Structure formats: C-alpha cells, structure tokens
Amino acid sequence: MRWRKPLAGILIFFMILVTILDGFSLLSSFQRPLWIAGMAGWASAFLLVADTPGILRIQLGVIIGVGLGLGMYAMSLGGTVDPDSIIAGNTGLLSMIAAVGFLRLVALPVTETSEHLPVGPRAYLQTLVGLNLSSAIINISAPILIGDRIHRKRPLQRFTSQSMTRVFCGAASWSPFFGAMAVVLTNLVDAKLSWIILAGLPFTIIGVLVVYIEAKLRYRDEMEEFVGYPMHAGALGIPLLLLVSVALARWLLPTVPVLVIISVCALAITLAVLSIRGNPLSSLTQTGGYITEGLPRIVNELTLFLSAGLIAAGMSAMIKLGVVPVPFDTFDAGIASRVLGIMLLSAALGIHPVILISSFTPMLLTLDPDPNLLAITYLLAWNLGTGSSPLSGTHLVFQGRYDIPSWKGATWNWPYAAFMYAVAVPWLHIIEALTIPQA
Q1: Please, which contacts does 364-368 make with residues 24 or more away whose CB atoms are closer than 8 Å?
Q2: Are the C-beta atoms of 415 and 195 separated by less than 8 Å?
Q3: Which residues pair with residue 119 across a beta bridge?
Q4: Please, what is the Cα angle at 174 between 347 and 217, to 5 degrees?
C-alpha cells in the first residue's frame, strides 16, 4: 500500500489545479467543474483517513453522522440538501491550504545546526514576532521548525510551549494564508479581506504583547534563560513578497476568488524561488516530492473540512425548513461577543472552530449581519479557541513531538483566552463603530 499516500497527494494537487482553472473560468465547458475537484478531495480523504489520530476519527464519525442525520431528516420533511455544499463546498479553502503548504520549501532560511542560538528577553521577543510572521505563511510548519531547533538545545517546558502555542494561534486573527481565513471567506463571500486583516492584526499584536508582559511579570527567570530561534531578516522576504503579490493580483483580477489568487501566488512564488536558488530541474524535483510526500500531511484539515461541509449542508436545510430556530433577532457587537463566548467554551470542550462556524453561519446569515463583523468574530474564536482546545491540531502536534499532553497545553492557555476574551469584547464594539468600507 505504499502507493496510497503518493496517489492521495496527486489527487490533492489535481484538486488544486481544477479549483484554480475554475476560478479563472477556464473550465466553462464542464457543467460542474468543482464537483471534479471535490470528488478528488473526497477520494484522497478516503485514502488517508487511516493516518488520522484515533480521537480525530471519532470526531469525524460524529460530525458525519450528525450531518447525514440532519440532511436525511430535512429531506423526510420535504426539504432539500444542497449537493454542492457536500461535494465541493470546501474545495476552495482546501486548495488554498494545500497550495500555501508548498511555501514550506522556501519560506524559512536554512540554518546550520551549529549556529549560535540567542538567549534572553530580546531573543524571546524576537522569537515571538518571528513565529507569528512565519506561522502566518506556513502555518503549523513554523512552530515545528522553530520548536525542533529550540528543543534540541533545551526540551520544551510549560513556559516555552504556552508562549509558542498562543502566538502561533494568534496568526489566525489576521493571516490571509491561514486555514481560518479560508474558512471565513468561504462562508462569508461578501467579507472584505483587507478590512478583516486590518481588524485582526491589532488584536494579534495585543496578544503578543500580553504574552511578553506576562513573561516579564511571572516568568522572569525563564525569560532570562530562554533559548530563542535566530530569525534572519531574510525570513521576512517571502511573507512580504506573498502579501504584495496577492494584493496586486487581487487589484488586477477583481473577479477571481481571493482563495484562488492566494493559491496561484503561493505556487508561483515557490517555483520561482526554488528555480532561483537552484535550477528549474531541481525545483520541479522538489515540487514533485512535496506533492507525493508533503501534501498527504494535510490529512487532518482535509478530512475535518470535508466533513464540515456535510454538517453545514444539513444545518442549512433544517434552518430553511424552520425546524432549527435562530436564537437571535439581530447581529451586533453584543451578539458577536456572545457568539464568541459560546464558541470559546465549545472549543474548550473539544469542538473544532470549523464545525462551529459551519453550524453558526446558516443561522446567523438569516439576520443579514455585517459580514466583516461576523468574519472577525470567527477569526478571534479560531485564534483563542484552537489554543484552548485539547483536541486542536496544535496541541496534538506538541504532544506527539515534544511529549506535552494536549490537555495540559490547552488548560495552560485557558487564563490567557479568558483575558483576551475580555479584550475582544470592547474590540468588537470598536470594530462595529468604525465605518466599514464597501469598496
């Protein structure tokens, strides 16, 4: 069965290509081109599901069971379930996540194992900032690369682990290349990417400052002895290039979905940088290797997001029938704060934010909410929720790699999440009070 993962990787890459071509309206001769991409995604998920952690397989079973149950009950009452949502509803965001993953080949500079690692408060702050910026581009690969390097010198303990998970998850509030943003833009097509980034970035900066100030007040000795990661100026080149290229392409191609633009830019920059560093042949070899070996590693996101499409379709069908009542009459900053609180408590119990977003969105859209306010609510929930959930991929990675139990990692972050929730409530009111650009 050694062919299983390479075949799954090829199918995922095929899904990316079909999604991109459809985004540029190059598959108009096909009746439902995204169904082709969606079926490729589902086929790869079936090939890879055996590689998911046991606890995730239990979650997937529950999610799929609930989604199918809602859909069948809705149909028994005469309702309809949207097949597009089930088959291809999340192909855009999955394609973006998979395409951005190629940046792992070029995003961080190669450092020698003998290179001196900085120590002390300055190294701590430098590592926090560098971790957030690099995580914004290459996601979970960033804390793994940085954590492995630090772990070789000194095993990760509570102080380092909670600092890294809080700052890593903080990238979800603003990064256009994070899975959180892909989910939000898929569910809220009228949300403005530039506005969301401007609303989420200050919250992330506040979070990093809170982590740093807490360290100075509570972990002074640990901070003095902290072994950091040598973040070079070159590490910021790829993130900046990607941000500029996406903004420019978005301006030149306003009708192309932003998820498709991000996917294209990520792939183009990866191939270009690899070619400059080596030669075209070696760049194709490295890219091919990533397709067959690297792409299958997104199995957790792949299976979770595809199953979320099932529950979203079932919930939407139930709401259209009026079976599931909407608990709110309007959506403002006050309701946004309540939704955020509910999502954080649910995340602490182990429910992934993508499932919560898929469940809440059909209900909240009936209230005609401001899409930007709802979008930032979801992103803040993803930021604080994934850091507080014992079943989040972040904590599961730290458990498997650094022997830090996921439940411990989550509970260490609960006080931080509670404090940042207190910051988020007035921040949501500030966002609501600002003039929302509609351009």
Answers
A1: 364/326, 364/328, 364/331, 364/339, 366/319, 366/326, 367/326, 367/328, 367/329, 367/330, 367/331, 368/331
A2: no
A3: 227
A4: 70
- What Å distances lie between residue 211 and 15, 106, 312, CA to CA? 39, 29, 35
**By three-state DSSP, how is residue 3 classified?**
coil
Non-local (6+) Cβ contacts of 195 within 8 A are 372, 436, 437
Name beta bridge partners: 227.
Answer: 119
> From first to last of its 439 residues, what are the pLDDT tens digits of the chain?
688 999 999 999 999 999 999 999 888 777 788 899 999 999 999 999 988 888 778 878 888 898 899 889 888 888 888 888 788 877 887 888 788 888 878 865 555 444 566 788 888 998 898 888 878 876 776 787 778 777 777 788 899 999 999 999 999 999 888 878 888 988 898 898 889 999 999 999 999 999 999 999 999 998 888 877 766 555 567 767 877 888 788 889 888 887 888 889 889 988 888 888 877 778 888 899 999 998 998 888 788 878 877 877 887 787 777 666 777 888 999 999 999 999 999 888 877 788 888 888 888 988 899 999 999 999 999 999 999 988 777 887 787 678 788 889 999 999 999 999 999 999 999 999 885 444 3
* Sign of the C-alpha dihedral computed for residues 66, 367, 365 and 376 taken in this order: negative
Query: Which DSSP category does 233 fall into?
Result: G
Distance in angstroms (rounded) separating the CA atoms of residues 217 and 209: 12
Contact yes or no for 347/308 (Cβ under 8 A): no
Query: What is the domain partition of the chain in residue ranges?
Result: 4-433
Q: How far is CA 356 from CA 179, 183, 309, 326, in A?
A: 14, 11, 12, 15
C-alpha dist (Å) from residue 218 to 159, 214, 409: 10, 6, 18
Q: Indicate the SS3 state at residue 377.
A: helix
- Check residue 265 and report its DSSP letter: H
The type of residue at 169 is C
Cβ(201)–Cβ(176) under 8 Å?
A: no
What is the spatial distance between Cα 264 and Cα 21, in angstroms, rounded to a whole number?
Answer: 10
Identify the CA nearest to 60 among candidates 390, 395, 305.
305
Which pTM was predicted?
0.75
Q: DSSP 3-state assignment of 72?
A: helix
| SS3 state of residue 227 | strand
